[in-house]
Amino acid sequence: AQKITQTQPGMFVQEKEAVTLDCTYDTSDQSYGLFWYKQPSSGEMIFLIYQGSYDEQNATEGRYSLNFQKARKSANLVISASQLGDSAMYFCAMNWDKIIFGKGTRLHILP
Amino acid sequence: NAGVTQTPKFQVLKTGQSMTLQCAQDMNHEYMSWYRQDPGMGLRLIHYSVGAGITDQGEVPNGYNVSRSTTEDFPLRLLSAAPSQTSVYFCASSYWRGGGEQFFGPGTRLTVL
Questions:
Q1: Which among A29, A78, B9, B104 is placed 20 to 30 Å from A42, CA to CA?
Q2: Is B84 exposed, middle or buried (0-12, 13-18, 19+ CB in 10 A)?
Q3: Residue contact A47–B103, C-beta within 8 A
Q4: How high is the pLDDT of residue B99?
């Protein structure tokens, strides 16, 4: 069965440092997509970035990039130059016939 | 565009009561889904739909029913509420399940006593 794993329940990072949030997935499908969402304490779900399994280049959106390693089945989110406003819950998600989420990583940015 | 709307925002039920959580989107999205969010569990898929008249079960479908009579609406029904269904419920939609952003509603916080 398809599965998304986020192994870091919580992380503390100093402001302005780069952050890598881990995500691994398990699927036998060849065509799928990978997403990252941010959930601040206010509760809304904010879309950050998307990577298709056939995309040859890693996706980037501003300070966010997705380090996609297909052979390792990993899709880590990299946040460059972290800011205090990056403190939030981060979810990795995957779609094939349906869209499922990992359990999330709570990121704390320290001033 | 209103995007994805959910009602109500908050609800308290007694065990055994039934209710419907409403979800609507005005973006003509084919794919819609319901998730529940519990502490430490992430978002778990309850049911999803790939178009009007088509629904399927997700990871945790027991105790919930859905229907999709129109493209716009995707209500979630709790037939006989249980305390284990206390959670935050999110509805989401996207153009199709194969890619691109999934748009989320603001969520419904449900407490079952």
A1: A78
A2: exposed
A3: yes
A4: 62
